[in-house]
Write a structure and sequence with these properties.
It is a single chain. Helices cover about 45% and strands about 15% of the residues. It is of the alpha+beta class. The chain has two domains: about 325 residues, no CATH class; about 50 residues. The strands form four sheets. Strands 2-3-1-12 form a four-stranded antiparallel β-sheet. A three-stranded antiparallel β-sheet has the order 5-4-9. A three-stranded antiparallel β-sheet has the order 6-7-8, with no helix packed on it. The chain is elongated.
C-alpha cells in the first residue's frame, strides 16, 4: 500500500467526496531574482526582446532560418478496412516511410496504418501556404521559432472550434499574452489573454495553438528560452558594451596634463586650453607647442582593460552559443576549415534544428490536423543533409554491386518502373568467383566475346 502524506490524503478524500479534481498549483516562474545576490530581477517579455542583440540575435536568427528552410509535408494514413483518401495524394518513398514509422512522436498515429501517402492538395496545405493577408508561410515559421528562441513561447490564433476549418492563422506577440490558469487538473489552462486593461482580449483554449520550449519552472504554462537561461551573463556583456560606448562618447580621460610652474588665472588657463585644442585636435597631433611661461607637460596613462573585456565577451558568446545549440563555427570564420564547418553544420542540424521541428509539428498534429481529419498528420523532412548524402552513397554502392536494381531504387522514391530497370547493371570488369577462389570464366568469356564482336565490326 502506498504511503500518502496527510495533505495528499486530504486532497484525495476531498476528490472522492465532492467528485472534483484536486487543485492545480499556479505556474511558477521561478525566484523573483536572477542572480545570487538578489539584485537582478527576472526579465519580462519586453526586456527579453530588448536584449535580443548581437550574439543572441545571431544565434536566434540562425535557428529560425534553419527551421524555416525545412519542408513541412502533410500525410494521410489508411488502416485496414478504411477507404482510400479522397484528396489528391502521391506515393511516399520507402526511405521516407521507414523514417516516419521510426519516429516515436508519430507512433500513435501510425500504429494501425497499413499505408501512408503524401497529400498533394488539401485545404490545410492552403491554410499553411496563405497564412493570412499580412504574411507568407516562410515568415510565419520564421517568426514562430524566433519568438520561441527569445521568449520561449509562440501563440497562433486559429479561431474557435467549429464545423468549418480555420480560415487564417494569426501569430500573436508572445510578450503580450498571458496564460489564464485553471484551478483543477481538469482545466489546467482556462484561456489566454492578449494585452492588459480595457483593451485586453480573451480567447478560449481551442482558439490558440501554444508552441513553446518546455520548462521545468512551469510544466503546463510558459516556456523557457535560451536567452532567459543566459540572462545574467548577457547582462554582464551588455553592461561592458554600454560602458565602452559611454567612454567613447564622453572622452573624459585626458591624455596629458599641462602644469604651470607659477600660479595663473582662470582666464589664462582657459586661453591656454583653447590654444592647445586648436593646435592639436584631430589631424594636428604631433605638432610643437611653445608657451610664454614655464610649463610642465605630464602624460597620463591608464591601465589596460581591453584584454579582460574581450575575454568576458568571449565567454558570453560561448555561453549563448551553447544555450542556443549553435556551434562556434557558424558564428566565427577564424580557424575554421571545411571539415570544422561541415561538422558544425551537422551538429547544429542534428542537435538544435531537429528537436525544434518536433516542438512545432507536435502541437500542430494535436490541435490543427484533427480539425480536418484524424487521419492527417504533419511531418518535417530530415533536416540533416549528411543523412541524405549517406543514403545516396549507399544506394550507389548497392547498384554498383548488384545488391539492388534500378527499379527498386525508383520504387523507394515513388517513381514508375522502367523496362530496363529489372536487371543489375554491372561493370564489365566484375565476374563471380568459384569455390577455389579463381574467377569464373563465364563473365570473362562474355567479355571476350563482346570484344571479338567489336573487333569484327571494326574490321568490317
Amino acid at each position: 500500500m502506498k504511503n500518502y502524506g496527510l495533505p495528499a490524503l486530504i486532497s484525495r478524500a476531498t476528490g472522492w467526496i465532492t467528485g472534483k479534481s484536486p487543485a492545480m498549483p499556479a505556474g511558477d516562474s521561478g525566484a523573483p531574482f536572477a542572480d545570487l545576490y538578489r539584485r537582478l530581477r527576472n526579465p519580462s517579455g519586453q526586456e527579453l526582446l530588448d536584449e535580443c542583440l548581437d550574439t543572441a540575435y545571431s544565434c536566434a536568427d540562425i535557428n529560425a532560418k534553419a527551421v524555416m528552410s525545412v519542408p513541412l509535408r502533410l500525410y494521410v494514413t489508411t488502416a485496414a478496412g478504411q477507404r482510400r483518401p479522397r484528396c489528391a495524394t502521391r506515393p511516399v518513398s520507402k526511405a521516407m516511410k521507414d523514417r516516419l514509422f521510426a519516429n516515436a512522436n508519430l507512433a500513435s498515429r501510425l500504429a494501425k496504418a497499413e499505408d501512408v501517402e503524401e497529400v498533394a492538395e488539401h485545404p490545410l496545405l492552403d491554410l499553411l501556404n496563405r497564412v493570412n493577408a499580412y504574411m507568407t508561410r516562410p515568415v510565419l515559421f520564421y517568426l514562430t521559432d524566433l519568438s520561441m528562441e527569445v521568449l520561449g513561447d509562440a501563440f497562433w490564433w486559429i479561431g474557435p472550434m467549429g464545423a468549418l476549418p480555420p480560415e487564417k492563422i494569426l501569430p500573436l506577440p508572445a510578450q503580450l499574452v498571458t496564460i489564464l490558469r485553471g484551478k483543477t487538473l481538469d482545466s489546467i489552462i482556462e484561456g489566454y489573454k492578449l494585452g492588459t486593461g480595457a483593451n485586453a482580449q480573451e480567447f478560449a483554449p481551442d482558439e490558440i495553438i501554444h508552441l513553446r520550449f518546455p520548462s521545468l519552472r512551469d510544466l503546463y504554462g510558459g516556456g523557457m528560452s535560451p536567452l532567459r537561461a543566459c540572462w545574467e551573463q548577457r547582462q554582464i556583456g551588455r553592461k561592458l558594451s554600454a560602458y565602452e560606448n559611454a567612454v567613447l562618447d564622453n572622452q573624459a580621460r585626458p591624455d596629458a596634463m599641462m602644469s604651470p610652474t607659477e600660479p595663473i588665472g582662470r582666464a589664462e588657463a582657459g586661453r591656454l586650453e583653447d590654444k592647445i585644442n586648436k593646435k592639436f585636435r584631430k589631424g594636428g597631433a604631433g605638432g610643437i607647442l611653445v608657451t610664454e611661461s614655464g610649463m610642465e607637460l605630464k602624460p597620463i596613462s591608464f591601465p589596460p582593460r581591453d584584454v579582460a573585456k574581450l575575454a568576458t565577451m568571449g565567454v558570453t558568446k560561448v555561453m549563448l552559443a551553447n544555450a542556443y545549440g549553435v556551434p562556434i563555427s557558424l558564428l566565427e570564420t577564424a580557424d575554421v576549415n571545411r571539415a570544422n564547418a561541415e561538422a558544425g553544420h551537422f551538429q547544429h542540424r542534428q542537435n538544435a534544428v531537429a528537436p525544434r521541428l518536433e516542438f512545432i509539428a507536435g502541437p500542430l498534429n494535436e490541435e490543427l490536423c484533427p480539425r480536418y481529419d484524424e487521419r492527417l498528420f504533419l511531418a518535417y523532412d530530415d533536416p540533416v543533409p549528411e543523412n541524405r548524402e549517406l543514403r545516396v552513397a549507399e544506394r550507389q554502392m548497392y547498384l554498383d554491386r548488384g545488391v539492388m536494381v534500378i527499379n527498386e531504387v525508383r520504387a523507394e522514391d515513388g517513381l514508375e518502373p522502367v523496362p530496363w530497370g529489372d536487371k543489375p547493371w554491372l561493370p564489365m570488369t566484375l565476374s563471380p568467383v568459384d569455390e577455389s577462389g579463381e574467377r569464373d570464366g563465364e563473365g570473362e568469356g562474355e567479355a571476350d566475346e563482346n570484344l571479338d564482336v567489336d573487333e569484327d565490326e571494326a574490321a568490317a
